[in-house]
Design a protein that fits this description.
The protein is an alpha+beta fold and 85 residues long. It has one domain. 19% of the residues lie in helices and 35% in strands. It has one helix and five strands. Strands 1, 2, 3, 4 and 5 form a five-stranded antiparallel sheet that branches. Strand 1 and strand 2 form a beta hairpin.
């Protein structure tokens, strides 16, 4: 799976301004990227988060992409994050 010509490893959806360890949200891994039993692979959720961020970007909304491997959108008190290789 690709996002901005990068390989997607995982996505996160959780409460904004909280840690992103998974206690305030969920991580989903792209197919073939989950290496441990607890790493849930879910292509539909990965696509949902990517589409949400892409739509916000297309609308000219602020997307935090200072880190070349992390893209983040804050919307309605939630963070949507794509982690890439």
């Amino acid at each position: 799976m690709k996002f901005n010509d990068k390989i997607v490893i995982s996505v996160y959806s959780g409460k904004a301004n909280k840690c992103c360890c998974g206690c305030s949200g969920k991580h989903y891994y792209a197919p073939g990227m989950g290496e441990e039993d607890y790493q849930v692979e879910n292509a539909a959720q990965v696509t949902r988060v990517i589409n949400k961020i892409q739509k916000a970007h297309d609308q000219g909304r602020f997307i935090d992409d200072d880190d070349p491997c992390i893209t983040c959108l804050e919307e309605n008190g939630r963070w949507y994050i794509v982690y890439t290789a």
